[in-house]
Amino acid sequence: MAGNNTKRRPMGLKSSMSKKPKTDENESVVDSSQMINDYEDERTATIALKSKDGASDDFEDLEEIYNNAMEALESDQEQAILLFQGAIHDCDRIIKIKDSENQILSLPTIFYYIYGMSLFKLSELLDPEDSVEYLKLASQRLNQALDSTNNFKNIASDILLSSKINIGIGKCDLSLSRLSEESMNLKHVDPCLSKFSIAIESHLKSNIHRKVPNDPKKDADSDSGDINKNTNIDQIYSVIDMVLTFAVISHDFDLKLHCISWSKNSLDLLKNDLFDPERLFFLAKADWILAQHYLDSLDTGSEEDSDVDDDEDEEFEEKNKISAFNDPEYESNSTRATEYLSSAERILTEIFEKEGEKSQPEVFTMLGEVLLNKGNFISDNKEQESYYKKSAKMFNLAQKVSGDDSIVPEHLLEFLQDYQ
């Protein structure tokens, strides 16, 4: 590491990626109508949709409500919430009708899929105290959808719907694991990863090849009646992102490593001859997560002694470094952190060199943090300063491209001001 440098960011300022969700394990499953109270809310009453000839079909109407809700996710979340609630209200109504006619078994697969995914989306959008109930009921409905696929034919549309169902079940169950410390283990997580793997394999077997879209901001979870290839493969990337985010919050290193290995293996399956910045970004994210793990292990000692008086800082830091350098475990963790930082730097730099300011803001933010942390390991003052300047440049680009200064984590703003 370098000598005295007032601008140097100290180790221990971590990424803003990891946030631990609140947990609530003592909840019981309730009926969806009790959770949403949509019968008492006129805004979520059944939305009547009609085709061009004036005829109306319950399932077509339901699918259109759901598709409209998915489209509204980016532009108007309040409208999306109302539409998802309306879809669930319609599902409850249709079930009552079919049950009274002894035709409950005639409900199509897409019905249960829409029911389940609407509940899942509300669990994310509303972040309710009873999100466990939303997720459990969503998983139940999606498993009903999966059970009804037994009569599916081996055609592309059926394969795609089965894949989406498996993705939905995996997302629900992984979200449930996040909400309970007891479920954050390999026993509960591995079945979710298996569901995701089945979905990915189905996509590959159906010969659906991804062309990198011109607009990388395309919603990764968009569903529509006219499904396109880009959207379906983008769903796979949204799954990988979810698994990597789960790896960030896991305190179990074996589970963290398992999720990262699964993600990298899945990304290898999606590799082709095209330049795919999204795939490269997630490869870099996997390395960055591992680098953070080893950086955190280096920070542990210094955080415990963070209450040292200011006038003793310099002497304390020097003693700390001497002690650390004589520790084999510290040296090993430093080496591994540097290796993963270098790998992430190489991948993210490749994206930046080919896309420039067209890159997503997250690319700049992550590259900025990677460069900053790697700079902390460099002993040559001039080279270290170069890394810090490149890091600040990336943070500035992130703010410029996103139009949002808050995209740079708050704990890095002081560093950024030093290198403006």
UniProtKB/TrEMBL annotation:
Pfam families: Nro1
InterPro entries: Nro1/ETT1 (IPR024318)
GTP-binding in keyword set: no
Transmembrane helix is among the record's keywords: no
Keywords assigned by UniProt, alphabetized: Nucleus, Transcription, Transcription regulation
Feature: compositional bias, Basic residues: 1-11
Any one GO biological process: positive regulation of SREBP signaling pathway
Subcellular location(s) of the protein: Nucleus
Domain of life: Eukaryota
GO cellular component: nucleus
Protein name, per record: Enhancer of translation termination 1
Organism: Smittium culicis
